[in-house]
């Protein structure tokens, strides 16, 4: 259900951004923790609230593609085609940094990630604000992204100055990030726009493997992780794995794929995974949070077929299952302007 904020809420959010505060912004993918992209102090607060290393770049959100020229140094033809086709939408383009973008927002990189979100409330806010809003997902570093305003409130509480409630996010996984700085666009993170859709627009295959030397912090082995440990097995192994873990004393949560819907499973809690990948993506982070809230300490799941939106879902599940000790990266120094 879409929630329509009052005009006064948009006004209040704009006021908070102008005053250097932080606003939780609904987008079609996940909620963002937004700050005025041109205010290095506000941007620094985003990193602090998230507990995110300052070298990890943020995405700058714009009201429409016509503003692109203000924020990036140049727009290769392929980037123009992608922006023209997918914006507003769940696609982020990495391009050469324009002078309007402070190095604080890009983690010191000479490239910048930009996108126009397809959410009426985000677009209303961005138009009223007039500038760029730098926003990572509104969760603590490494944990599950929020897809409702309640998720944001539960996770960040008073650390965010204003939560703009736009209802639950429709896509449910983050944007697809494409490095469009060169002649051959390259997917840095799978997301709401599928490789198949990108290829249809570009008229050539797109690499889904990061071959570029650009640092991609979302690629940390553990990311998008619930409190419970996540174990990935083949679908036909789910029931046995869950039972064995229950018997070892775990509170087991299970992601039950449609192919196992009739299989009896001994577990503390189970989520029936929707057949449609769009529904699965929309529900994914909520399911992980739900199993956490039900007290599960171990989640047994399997990855879907890695095509279409299944690629992004599989990517998030694999990272959720990644080794946890890499959560706190070694401190790095970065030269700021
Ligand atoms: O759907 C989304 O993309 C959401 C909503 C709020 O827009 N945002 C989001 O932001 O997922 P975040 O910060 O959680 O992930 C952004 C990722 C970074 O982790 C990094 O991998 C990549 O964007 N990124 C940002 N700037 C980059 C750059 N200049 N070069 C390469 N990757 C970059
Ligand atoms: Mg994130």
Task: Please describe what this structure looks like.
Its EC number is 2.7.7.87. The chain has 337 residues and is of the alpha/beta class. The chain folds into two domains: 7-218, DHBP synthase (Alpha-Beta Complex), CATH 3.90.870.10; 229-321, 3-Layer(aba) Sandwich (Rossmann fold). It has helices at residues 7-18, 40-50, 68-71, 77-86, 103-106, 120-129, 149-156, 195-202, 238-247, 277-293, 310-320; strands at 23-25, 32-36, 59-61, 91-96, 111-115, 133-134, 162-163, 176-179, 186-189, 229-232, 252-256, 269-272, 298-301. The strands form two sheets. It has a nine-stranded mixed sheet, sandwiched between helices. A four-stranded parallel sheet has the order 10-13-11-12, with helices on both faces. β8 (176-179) and β9 (186-189) form a beta hairpin. The radius of gyration is 20 Å and the shape is globular. It binds threonylcarbamoyladenylate and magnesium ion. The site of threonylcarbamoyladenylate has 29 residues, from β4, β5 and β9.
What's this model, at a glance?
With 337 residues, this protein is of the alpha/beta class. The chain has helices at residues 7-18, 40-50, 68-71, 77-86, 103-106, 120-129, 149-156, 195-202, 238-247, 277-293, 310-320, and strands at residues 23-25, 32-36, 59-61, 91-96, 111-115, 133-134, 162-163, 176-179, 186-189, 229-232, 252-256, 269-272, 298-301. It catalyses: L-threonine + hydrogencarbonate + ATP = L-threonylcarbamoyladenylate + diphosphate + H2O.
């Amino acid at each position: 259900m879409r929630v329509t904020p009052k005009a006064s809420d948009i006004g209040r959010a704009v006021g908070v951004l102008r005053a250097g505060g932080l606003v939780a912004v609904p987008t079609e993918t996940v909620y963002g923790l937004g700050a005025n992209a041109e205010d290095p102090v506000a941007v620094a607060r985003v990193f602090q609230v998230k507990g995110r290393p300052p070298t990890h770049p943020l995405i700058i959100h714009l009201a429409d593609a016509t503003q692109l020229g203000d924020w990036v140094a140049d727009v290769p033809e392929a980037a123009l085609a992608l922006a023209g086709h997918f914006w507003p939408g769940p696609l982020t383009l990495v391009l050469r940094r324009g002078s309007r973008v402070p190095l604080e927002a890009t983690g010191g990189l000479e490239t910048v990630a930009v996108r126009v979100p397809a959410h009426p409330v985000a677009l209303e806010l961005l138009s009223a604000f007039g500038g760029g809003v730098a926003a990572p997902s509104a969760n603590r570093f490494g944990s599950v992204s929020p897809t409702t305003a309640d998720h944001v409130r539960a996770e960040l509480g008073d650390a965010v100055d204003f939560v703009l409630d736009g209802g639950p996010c429709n896509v449910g996984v983050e944007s697809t990030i494409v490095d469009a700085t060169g002649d051959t666009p390259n997917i840095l993170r799978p997301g709401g726009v599928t490789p198949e859709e990108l290829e249809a627009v570009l008229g050539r295959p797109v690499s889904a493997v990061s071959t570029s030397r650009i640092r991609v912090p979302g690629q940390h082995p553990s990311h998008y992780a619930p409190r419970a440990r996540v174990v990935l097995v083949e679908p036909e192994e789910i029931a046995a794995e869950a039972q064995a873990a229950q018997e070892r004393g775990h509170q087991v949560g299970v992601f039950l794929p449609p192919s196992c819907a009739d299989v009896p499973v001994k577990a503390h809690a189970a989520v029936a995974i929707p057949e449609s990948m769009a529904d699965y993506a929309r529900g994914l982070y909520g399911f992980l949070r739900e199993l956490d809230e039900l007290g599960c300490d171990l989640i047994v799941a399997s990855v879907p077929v890695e095509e279409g939106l299944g690629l992004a879902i599989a990517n998030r599940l694999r990272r959720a299952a990644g080794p946890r000790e890499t959560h706190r990266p070694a401190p790095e120094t970065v030269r700021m302007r």
